[in-house]
Amino acid sequence: MKNSLSLIKKELVLQFLSSCSSPLFFSFSALGAQSDFVIQAATYRVVNGVLYFPLDEQYLDYLCMQVLVSFNFHGVPLFFRSVFEREGSEGRVEIGEEIFESDEKSERHFCAIKATICFVGKDGGSTLLKGREGEKFSLFARSRKECAAEFFAGKRRRISLFTIEEKNEVEILYIDEKSLLIGFHTGDARLRKGVSCFVSLCFSLEAEKNIVRKIDLTARAEKIVKSKDDENKSCALLKFSDIQEEDKRFLKEKEAISLRPCYPS
After folding, report:
1. Rounded distance between C-alpha atoms, residue 218 and residue 242, angstroms
2. What gap in Å lies between CA 235 and CA 189, rounded to an integer?
3. pLDDT tens, position by position, 135-178
4. H or E stretch including 101?
5. CA–CA distances in Å: residue 176 to residues 20, 129, 248, 251
6. 25 phi, psi to nearest 5 deg
7. Rounded Cα gap, residues 54 and 72, in angstroms
8. Which residues have C-beta within 8 Å of that of residue 15, sequence separation ≥ 6?
9. Are 264 and 202 in contact (CB under 8 A)?
């Protein structure tokens, strides 16, 4: 189901696109070719209603083909159809005369993960937190602040990630290429501000083929926030300090895909 935006709404969306703050999803699969790709936020520009972006070699096979461009506008999935063209060294796509809103909810992509966090606790001993790979879960969220607020308000993640010896004491609330937010359910959070941690993340890319992606890094506990209403709850913000560029790109890609709108049929 799709609804064309009014002229006023379309103008607001064009202003939003000009800010280049949302990833764009180019799909050719619905139009004959079995492929699609992501143009990351801040890597494209908008001039007089035309999108310009770096033209990677992998895109050359799709020149002059029809393309469906979809994106999220403040959580609302939108899309338009156009033609994939080239202008000089850049890709070029005119923003369609009509922009449509899908009445379907945004598609959520999932990824299984194992995680380990190791740090020195308040008592001077080494503390090891292990995350078990269980059911799939929503990896990324849009707002770190919103996730913390929901955790303190008692709203639980749809599927909990972190467990410690079968006890549901710690949850990952948010992750991106810069930081990790974890929530403690016990009064003793065992983590102090300024403490350095070793973080190991293992992503299952293709469970059937046992293909995984592992990321090892160090992080610093930048902030510890306690709940005002529940003395047993607290959040710790871990800022990554030595993450590799290739790992940053991987996490940014996962973040973009997790917010991918539904492609209309």
Report:
1. 6
2. 8
3. 444 555 556 777 788 788 876 554 444 444 434 456 777 788 88
4. strand 100-102
5. 19, 19, 8, 6
6. -115, 115
7. 21
8. none
9. no
